[in-house]
Inverse folding.
């Protein structure tokens, strides 16, 4: 998975970047606006041809004489620069056209919008036959290429230009208004320079800001694919000559003045003194609304106001080159891939969530405080994907293991122990291990002769009744019911889960079994049935324990070893000594410290002499467990 996201980060497919990653960018940009909102530049004012103006002056487009009057009145207020985000490409009448041309000339600081037609794809464009001088006058006078950067392969190239009429364009500065929205229609980038013929042309807002800063056009230098030198400053761009627009927020983040108020002389013009004035349409009927990360209806003129401010403050949003993202993808991929399989689900979730939240916080910090857009989608999806795959894989693996444990141990141990094994499957030790345990053997005395005296059905019924009661008691004392061998029972304490008090549990279980047998004997006596009696032998020691049998055929969880055999031999001695429960010295040593501390004083032991046990050269000291004091 990590390799997949490394490839995606390297190639950064447009459809993912502009349809998915950009949405996370929009959220971060809104967070930036909330956390660190800066007031808009006080010297930028929008003169809007709004619904009020159209209702007052008349339907749009207005006559050239009206526009001339508007420019004259704005100019009379002595603003720094007047940017007009309107095209005047068609002739009206010589008289009105001349009025507008004279107003632009007289103002002396007007920047006009110029439209360029950029074809789809990267087709080879023929050089334009004739570039008018007024257009060339607004081009970058100096373009420099940086070694190793083939910026011309990426530059936005236009094949046609549609400027305002020559009489307007020759007395104004020109700036292009070509835009390239992302696939979702949102305007996140501004193309600060585009190529037409052999020259490159600055964007409208860039020209407005240059004039407002008093920088001559000769001091505006294009460094292809790197940025734009503007006087002593430098505005960084990407290979396409773009800068990420650092929006102030929704529409009307900048001060607006209705154009009709200026035309009618309603006291608005004096507020334009020394300001950067942008003139454009904001009425919905003029269809110049842009989709931005903040709004679906921002007037194009306000979008340009944001770009002007970005140039003035040099705070465009830059795009991370991707090195950081690649490092995060690779390093977190390796770390999580190696760490999460060893952890439980909750711990895995905390670690994965911690890494994800930490990276999201880092991306937010970079955008809010460094104006840097780092890809969030690929590293976060990689981390989440690794966590999900490992968790799901572990779930099915653990579910399978739980099922195996449940099938294997449900008939051996109590539900409590089964639950503990499922929660901690490593405790099961199925592969085989050495462990100190306490083993209990119980056998019905005289069972062979009983089988000969009674009908098989009666024997089975009686034996099943006895074995069920004994098994319930073993489970009650958290024992492992190793096996039934006819009338014989083998039980273990201390495995498959650790039980530090395994010897005590076995002794208490033996007493409980004996007490239950007394009750059963009374019941059988009342029914006139055969009365069973048993011998119980208990020993403690190290055994080999695990899943033993024929793999693929039949496997049983059981214990083997000398101490298992000793427990069985001691059980046989109960006939010889005429007692029900015998334990070895090994088991007694485990409970002796408790007896000395008074923690086990309610049990009564009687020391027996050392007994000769089959299979043992040395005699074994045994104790009789009598019962509760």
């Amino acid at each position: 998975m990590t390799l997949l996201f490394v490839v995606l980060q390297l190639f950064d497919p447009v459809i993912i970047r502009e349809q998915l990653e950009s949405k996370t960018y929009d959220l971060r940009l809104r967070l930036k606006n909330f956390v660190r909102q800066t007031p808009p530049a006080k010297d930028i004012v929008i003169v809007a041809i709004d619904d009020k103006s159209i209702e007052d002056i008349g339907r749009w487009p207005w006559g050239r004489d009206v526009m001339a009057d508007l420019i004259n009145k704005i100019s009379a207020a002595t603003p720094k620069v007047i940017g007009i985000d309107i095209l005047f490409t068609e002739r009206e009448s010589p008289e009105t056209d001349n009025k507008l041309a004279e107003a632009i000339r007289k103002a002396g600081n007007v920047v006009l919008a110029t439209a360029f037609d950029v074809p789809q794809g990267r087709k080879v464009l023929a050089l334009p036959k004739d570039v008018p001088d007024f257009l060339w006058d607004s081009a970058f006078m100096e373009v420099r290429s940086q070694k190793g950067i083939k910026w011309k392969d990426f530059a936005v190239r236009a094949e046609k230009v549609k400027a305002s009429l020559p009489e307007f364009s020759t007395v104004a500065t020109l700036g292009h208004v070509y835009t390239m929205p992302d696939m979702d229609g949102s305007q996140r980038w501004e193309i600060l320079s585009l190529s037409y013929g052999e020259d490159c042309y600055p964007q409208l807002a860039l020209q407005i800001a240059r004039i407002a800063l008093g920088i001559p056009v000769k001091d505006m230098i294009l460094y292809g694919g790197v940025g734009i030198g503007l006087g002593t400053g430098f505005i960084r761009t990407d290979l396409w000559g773009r800068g990420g627009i650092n929006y102030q927020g929704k529409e009307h983040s900048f001060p607006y003045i209705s154009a009709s108020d200026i035309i009618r002389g309603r006291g608005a013009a004096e507020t334009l003194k020394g300001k950067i004035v942008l003139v454009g349409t904001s009425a919905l009927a003029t269809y110049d609304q842009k989709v931005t990360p903040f709004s679906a209806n921002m007037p194009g003129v306000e979008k340009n106001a944001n770009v002007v401010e970005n140039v003035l403050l040099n705070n465009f949003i830059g795009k991370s080159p991707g090195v950081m993202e690649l490092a995060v993808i690779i390093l977190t991929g390796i770390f999580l891939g190696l760490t999460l399989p060893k952890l439980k689900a909750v711990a895995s979730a905390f670690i994965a969530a911690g890494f994800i939240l930490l990276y999201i916080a880092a991306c937010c910090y970079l955008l809010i405080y460094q104006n840097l857009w780092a890809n969030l989608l690929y590293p976060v999806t990689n981390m989440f994907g690794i966590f999900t795959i490992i968790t799901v894989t572990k779930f099915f693996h653990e579910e399978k293991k739980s099922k195996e444990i449940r099938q294997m141990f449900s008939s051996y141990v109590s539900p409590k122990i089964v639950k503990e094994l499922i929660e901690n499957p490593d405790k099961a030790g199925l592969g085989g291990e050495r462990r100190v345990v306490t083993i209990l053997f119980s056998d019905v005395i005289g069972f062979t002769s009983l089988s000969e005296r009674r009908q098989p059905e009666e024997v089975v019924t009686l034996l099943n009744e006895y074995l069920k009661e004994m098994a319930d008691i073993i489970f009650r004392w958290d024992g492992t019911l190793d096996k039934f061998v006819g009338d014989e029972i083998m039980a273990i304490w201390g495995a498959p889960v650790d039980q530090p008090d395994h010897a005590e549990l076995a002794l208490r279980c033996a007493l409980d079994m004996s007490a239950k047998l007394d009750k059963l004997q009374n019941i059988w006596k009342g029914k006139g049935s055969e009365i069973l009696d048993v011998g119980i032998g208990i020993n403690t020691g190290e055994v080999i324990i695990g899943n033993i049998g024929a793999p693929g055929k039949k496997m049983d969880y059981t214990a083997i070893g000398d101490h298992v055999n000793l427990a069985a031999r001691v059980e046989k001695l109960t006939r010889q000594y005429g007692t029900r429960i015998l334990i070895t010295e090994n088991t007694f040593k485990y409970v002796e410290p408790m007896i000395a501390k008074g923690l086990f004083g309610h049990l009564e032991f009687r020391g027996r002499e050392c007994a000769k046990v089959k299979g043992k050269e040395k005699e074994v000291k045994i104790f009789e467990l009598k019962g509760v004091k």
User: Anything to note?
Assistant: Residues 83 and 100 are 15 Å apart (CA to CA).
